[in-house]
Specification:
This protein is mostly helical and 90 residues long. The chain has one domain (11-79). The chain is built from 4 helices and no strands. It is flat and about 50 Å long. It starts with 10 loop residues before the first helix and ends in a 13-residue tail after the last helix. It comes from Caldalkalibacillus thermarum (strain TA2.A1). This is PD-(D/E)XK endonuclease-like domain-containing protein.
């Protein structure tokens, strides 16, 4: 395998690399994944919401805060056309 050059890495890429370099390579570099796109996007949104929730001071954590995070990230990362329709099967 040859060398891969990456100019910059975001926090998400660094976290993914630390969790599993092999999965990082195939998911971020090669663009191949065994999971459907919708599942990866939903998991990304859930991970971000949980991470943001627990980085808040304890007195700022609330169900309203979680709902605001869901709205923010869902609108930014989830499109309705990524989900399979009934005719496509699940």
């Amino acid at each position: 395998m040859g060398w891969v050059t990456i100019k910059t890495l975001g926090d998400d890429q660094i976290e993914a690399f630390m969790r599993c370099p092999y999965r990082f390579y195939h998911g971020w570099i090669k663009g191949k994944s065994s999971q459907p796109e919708w599942r990866m996007r939903v998991q990304y949104v859930v991970n971000r919401i949980v991470k943001n929730f627990y980085t808040l001071p304890q007195n700022k954590r609330s169900s309203l805060q979680v709902l605001e995070q869901i709205e923010k990230y869902w609108k930014s990362f989830i499109r309705s056309d990524i989900f399979p329709t009934r005719s496509q099967g699940i």
